[in-house]
Amino acid sequence: MKKSIMMLGAALMLGGVASAQKVAFEEYDLDNGMHVILHNDPTAPVVVTSVMYHVGSKNETPDRTGFAHFFEHLLFEGTENIKRGEWMKIVTGNGGVNNANTSEDRTYYYEVFPSNNLELALWMESERLMHPVINKIGVDTQNEVVKEEKRTSYDNRPYGSFQTVVKKNLFTKHPYRWSTIGAMEHLDAATLEEFQAFNKKFYIPNNAVLVVAGDFEKGQAKAWIEQYFGPIKKGAPIQLEQFIEEPITKTITDRFEDANIQIPAIVAAYRTPSMKTRDARVLDMISSYLSDGKSSRLYKKIVDEKKMALQTGAFTNSQEDYGMYILYGLPMGTFTAADVLKEIDEEIVKIQTDLISEKDFQKLQNKSDNNYVNANAGVEGIAENLATYYLLYGDVHLINSEIDLIHSITREEIRAVAKKYLNPNQRLVLDYVPATEKAKN
């Protein structure tokens, strides 16, 4: 009886979440191939204007890495109609904020303005696409900015290089094998013509999705979109090379010395399938089960009870073509990296052998509901999710149906996916250790 009441309560909660969070939107294409998605939400007097381009670090060549991330910075330099240094002044002077970010698969730009500045936002983003100024002074300026970012976020940051090391081991053919920020020597060696060619190839309307979300009048928004984006010429179709990785069949081992740390780390990393797959969603649930919060399996056992590690956890890095599943621990006291890895592996074997409990499974479902609600809690999150589901997943309707997919995952699937991907002969084991005095010098 008690179990039936719990199941009824969970079902009612899910129904409430699904109905309360349904995101209404309209989508269409311009003649030049740009996809447009509109989401009207009059609850707050703000509007988000965003453009996501289907270009990331995977679209680079091995001797010219870092281009996509470089353009995230470079395209704020100015346009034919926005003088150099004026972009941020225009945004802040009109009560707005803006930013951009780059991943392996896409580059995303957005502005958040008071609703009465939608036309300004659309004009600015169309300017970025139609009239960018890519010259030597802009390239040289942003080259120094990117170098400082690399020093701060990678080179001089504790554990800042571990994902870079993981990627180069898990991928041998795919461009995922290099970091998004790339190599500074590649940017130094590139000519102005190479930067201009990269822009011409990838920053085209038929390689992008425009999202407008927030408080706006739809008819007027469509008219402005046609006015500012419609005249932009369609670019040449992009032919992308496919990179297929051979399965990992034996343990890969590596060691990396980091001069910025004093506590070593042990990392176990697995290559996993595309984020578009059902298995990728299951792996997300497994990482939540293992390390989401202080009541999670790894934290409770290794950190809280046995006090073997200062920190431990699991997370997924989901990407369009492949993903990475990463487990890690920072041993403390007399415990070694091998000791911590042994404890982590024991928990993996348990998931592969036994079904997780009904209680733990329900907790995972509740966390999924919470994540779903938070992801769509504001227009900024909705705008990015609409763009991501369209551009990378190929189905914008997942913004409403993803939660149903997650709730259809079973305990049996969790066990089966753990068996399929999380085996010792399919992984990298990385000893990430403090640098020796010799290495520091």
From TrEMBL:
Residues 36-174 form the Peptidase M16 N-terminal domain. Residues 190-367 form the Peptidase M16 C-terminal domain. Keywords: Hydrolase, Metalloprotease, Protease, Signal, Zinc. One of its GO terms (biological process) is proteolysis. It comes from the Bacteria. InterPro entries: Metalloenz_LuxS/M16, Pept_M16_N, Peptidase_M16, Peptidase_M16_C. Residues 1-20 form the signal peptide. GO terms for molecular function: metal ion binding; metallopeptidase activity. Belongs to the peptidase M16 family. This is Insulinase family protein.
